[in-house]
């Protein structure tokens, strides 16, 4: 197929990854490529994955989705950040709030000014200067591009939503743009004897689906990327100790906070994701430290709302495919790898992988150079996120279980070790090329986990004590004043959902 024009694209899998990919491909390639999606109702989807990060807004905008319609269709709510409870020490909490903290200065991030004030005895919390944090904790939200009458950025947000409903919503979108859906279980994958490329998928009912390029969104099984073309899986379990999850939807308990909660326990952590109609809950844990029965006890003992189903166990392996694209198979979603859900990055990885695929989309045959570039970018992206997630485990100060003691003493990737040491010594942290997380995100998790720098940037000494006090006081007043004006999260949702 060296010079054959790629005309038939086949997506295997109709979970969040499959339908996000179908929607993105239909939006960008419809008219030039024929798109078919194969999914099996019998197999179903993983059925979890409800918290996202701000770039999801770009994805929805690129598709031209209306926000109110989308939130109605998915029972969605607003997310301003993730609150980490008991992660640094038991009883302490901090937030990785989206958006900025404080005010940017040329060449010097705001936290250096905060560090200087701290060194001179001020007790303000770093999060007193985060608009997102203050709005989240006061349960407020509105679309706010800037803090009124300033050029300081306003609220940055993402969504919580029912991922199953999102997939259905994107299915309607994709089918309206010409994507063909085939229902059935794939029981055989035929490959070309000479090139090893996948030629077609054979369904249980005998139907044969031919393609030039295949996107494997079949979930953890990786039916094409693993079984058919044999891309190895690189495990990162030496750094990410959890390998199981237990999920249970439950009744909402009272108001709908505009943030995700991540609550650390003795051998793992629990998520709490508020949707309009229920709260998604679950526990991520290490099977070397807890049995499923112990995990179930912890989960059910920490559920404020009534469970709406039996808890479901989901085993997983953290890591990724060494080649996310091999031969004529590109893997996206769980088929391509999995970083545990601590920073809600999986749906984002589908989004960025699908976008990357559009940008690298082959024209005349599949070129080794574009495959290599796709794989290089995918690897770098995963490794940066991996480091950010490991940081939460490594920089804990809990010594109350073997699990946390193990995390504290484990070796971490050099790239992360360097970041922690640089920050601890100087307060400096840099966003690497292609890093999803900003400096402000790194600062919040480093400070929140108790990695407190021994020094600050010299530029922060450029203000007199009085100027520094004035800066901090005026920022706090500005932020509190802006939050006061905002409607509650529930008021925002009901007026948006009622409109149109
Ligand atoms: P799946 O949902 O498993 O879909 C696989 C599809 O392949 C299904 O349609 C299935 O029918 C089809 N299929 C498989 N085999 C065959 C076959 N032989 N024939 C035909 N069809 C087949 N992500 C986030 O961004 N935020 C979160 O908060 C979050 N939380 C998570 C919590 C947990 C515990 C886990 C495990 C994951 C979480 N994720 C989260 C990840 C998120 O769930 C997934 O990234 C996302 O749902 C994509 O899944 P998928 O579509 O790749 O796989």
UniProtKB/TrEMBL annotation:
Gene3D superfamilies: FAD/NAD(P)-binding domain. L-tryptophan binds at residue 343. Pfam families: Trp_halogenase. One of its GO terms (molecular function) is monooxygenase activity. 7-chloro-L-tryptophan binds at residue 79. InterPro entries: FAD/NAD-bd_sf (IPR036188), Flavin-dep_Halogenase_NPB (IPR050816), Flavin_halogenase (IPR006905), Trp_halogen (IPR033856). Keywords: FAD, Flavoprotein, Nucleotide-binding. FAD binds at residues 14-17, 186, 334, 347. It comes from the Bacteria. The active site is at 79. This is Tryptophan halogenase family protein. It comes from Microbulbifer pacificus.
